[in-house]
């Protein structure tokens, strides 16, 4: 469970902490699925910290390099507040395998309502983060609104498609009025430059630990490229690996240039150029795919 010490040891990405049950997390995700997948929520009585628990800001306690005593396999042993990293059953990222996916068109179209707002960019050591300081809009998931807070990148991608890992992954982090998190993940392969990174590139190459003002940034320039998406309940992918996150992974793999990925890798601190957590066990979780107009099949 979250404590005052846990919050003080991590960046205040999310300002308050709220405790929810796994069942509660599932019900946020499954409002319209209850009649078909009621079994998924039954019997899950484990209490967990809500996704409002923040990510760490100082990268020094952990690394992505195994064999150092601070790699991903050891994250859960580094700090008592990070036990979910090693013992959690709703961990992210995951491998999105065709045979595990259940197509469910009634999930509905992902409703986005983003708008321009002042933003800053910061080098957190283990990643580059853009944070909106004003109202940058929201998404609607099953009738619940989640406000856009920030986005950051992982290279290579953290989520994999049928075992294939791509070159980059963008996470768009959202928070609702109950202090619960929803993250949209967009995966990229090498190809044409990404328009959003093109706009930010000159700032990324010189950004430091302090916030650098970007002026007004429109998150609407972040393109999804498809209405198809995966949905599952997972966790933060960095310590404290807090569970209860509603994940939406865009099905289409978009493109990014090598220069853009290299800029992100060169900007972070030494040892964090590859900042992707290995995929985690699914542990019986359901993974849904929204495909407009499709009533069956797989990804």
From TrEMBL:
Annotated function: Reversible hydration of carbon dioxide.
An example Gene Ontology CC term for this record: chloroplast stroma
GO molecular function list: carbonate dehydratase activity; metal ion binding
Protein name: carbonic anhydrase
UniProt family annotation: Belongs to the alpha-class carbonic anhydrase family.
Coiled coil start-end: none
All copies of domain Alpha-carbonic anhydrase, residue ranges: 60-291
Enzyme class: lyase
Keywords annotated in UniProt: Glycoprotein, Lyase, Metal-binding, Signal, Zinc
Pfam families the UniProt entry points to: Carb_anhydrase (PF00194)
PROSITE patterns registered for this protein in UniProt: ALPHA_CA_2 (PS51144)
Keyword Zinc attributed: yes
Cofactors named for this entry: Zn(2+)
Matching InterPro entries: Alpha_CA_prokaryot-like, CA_dom, CA_dom_sf, Carbonic_anhydrase_a-class
This enzyme's EC code(s): 4.2.1.1
Catalytic reaction(s) noted: hydrogencarbonate + H(+) = CO2 + H2O
Location in or out of the cell: Plastid, Chloroplast stroma
């Amino acid at each position: 469970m979250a404590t005052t010490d846990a919050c003080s040891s991590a960046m205040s990405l999310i300002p308050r902490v709220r405790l929810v049950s796994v069942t509660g997390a599932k019900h946020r995700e499954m409002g319209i699925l209850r009649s078909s997948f009621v079994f998924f929520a039954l019997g899950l009585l484990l209490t967990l910290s809500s996704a409002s628990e923040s990510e760490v800001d100082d990268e020094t306690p952990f690394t992505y390099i195994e064999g150092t005593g601070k790699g991903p396999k050891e994250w859960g042993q580094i700090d008592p507040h990070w036990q979910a990293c090693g013992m959690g059953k709703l961990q992210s990222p995951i491998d999105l395998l065709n045979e595990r996916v259940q197509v469910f068109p009634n999930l509905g179209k992902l409703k986005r309502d983003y708008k321009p707002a002042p933003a800053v960019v910061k080098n957190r050591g283990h990643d580059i983060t853009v944070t909106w300081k004003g109202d940058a809009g929201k998404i609607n998931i099953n009738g619940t609104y989640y406000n856009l807070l920030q986005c950051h990148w992982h290279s290579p991608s953290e989520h994999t498609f049928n075992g294939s890992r791509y070159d980059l992954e963008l996470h768009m982090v959202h928070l609702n009025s109950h202090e619960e998190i929803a993250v949209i993940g967009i995966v990229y392969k090498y190809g044409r430059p990404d328009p959003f990174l093109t706009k930010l590139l000159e700032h990324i190459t010189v950004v430091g630990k302090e916030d650098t003002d970007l002026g007004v940034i429109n998150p609407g320039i972040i393109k999804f490229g498809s209405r198809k998406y995966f949905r599952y309940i997972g966790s933060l992918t960095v310590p404290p690996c807090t569970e209860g996150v509603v994940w939406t992974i865009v099905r289409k793999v978009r493109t990014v240039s090598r220069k853009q990925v290299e800029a992100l890798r060169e900007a972070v601190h030494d040892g964090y150029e590859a900042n992707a957590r290995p995929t985690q066990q699914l542990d019986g979780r359901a993974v849904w795919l929204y495909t407009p107009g499709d009533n069956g099949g797989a990804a």
